[in-house]
Automatic annotation (TrEMBL):
This is Tripartite ATP-independent periplasmic transporter DctQ component. The keyword Metal-binding does not apply. GO terms for biological process: C4-dicarboxylate transport. Its main location: membrane.
Length: 230
């Protein structure tokens, strides 16, 4: 189960990096293809990047769904807990468990409804066709305009992302019952800042020590000079 610890980060990093690269190539292709360069312009005009926008939209939809699961795991979702924090510790804990269970219940319902939708929207046909089973009158389902992908593949982000989100709600709930602590994210914290400041602080400390040593040596030399003069 260790591979689930950072599953969202891997998926979000891959999707965000891929979408950024595709957008950059599409924009660069559109710009450079207007240059009247022999041979090169004809080759660039022959390339079709009409699918780039649709693919990036799909990638951002998947990114949003798995980003929501990441938010549950790390505690970055915005919440209004003014009333909850005014309650006694035992009562507050019960309300927090209820809220986490309600989140798990809601996302589980979305998972079931989303799974049913994509199953009836062409996934049923695709699975039976892949296994060599009789498809009968099962609908193949619609496809996307540019990529011509089955739409059930795109909409799979809803049940898969919701299922992972449900798992994170249950994970946080079990952890809270055991430890009494919730994941907390400091919005003012930036990863890597402390690591970069530590060497700088160390250098400042070394500089202060050197300056103090130099002052001490200067003071001792001045004292010895006065004694020699006397």
């Amino acid at each position: 189960m260790k591979f689930l610890n950072h599953l969202e980060e891997w998926l979000i990093t891959f999707l965000m990096g891929g979408a950024t690269l595709i957008i950059f190539l599409a924009v660069a292709h559109r710009y450079v293809a207007g240059w009247p360069i022999p041979v090169v312009q004809d080759w660039l005009l022959g390339l079709n990047f009409g699918w780039a926008q649709e693919l990036c939209i799909i990638m951002f939809v998947w990114m949003a769904k798995f980003g929501a699961a990441y938010g549950v795991r790390t505690g970055i979702h915005v919440g209004v807990d003014v009333l909850i924090n005014q309650m006694e510790r035992s009562t507050r804990g019960k309300f927090i468990v209820f809220g986490l269970f309600a989140g798990a219940l809601f996302t589980s319902i979305v998972t079931v409804l989303g799974g049913t939708f994509i199953w009836d929207n062409g996934m049923h046909y695709a699975v039976f066709n892949l296994l060599g089973l009789e498809t009968g009158s099962l609908p193949e389902g619609p496809t996307t305009p540019d990529l011509e992908w089955p739409t059930w593949v795109v909409y799979s982000a809803v049940p898969f992302g919701s299922a992972l989100m449900c798992f994170r709600f249950l994970q946080v709930m079990v952890s809270f019952i055991r430890t009494g602590e919730l994941p907390h994210h400091d919005h003012g914290h930036v990863d890597g800042i402390e690591e970069e400041q530590k060497p700088l602080e160390g250098k400042r400390l070394e500089l202060r020590v050197v300056l103090q040593d130099e002052k001490g040596e200067g003071g001792s030399k001045a004292t010895h000079g006065k004694e020699d003069a006397q």
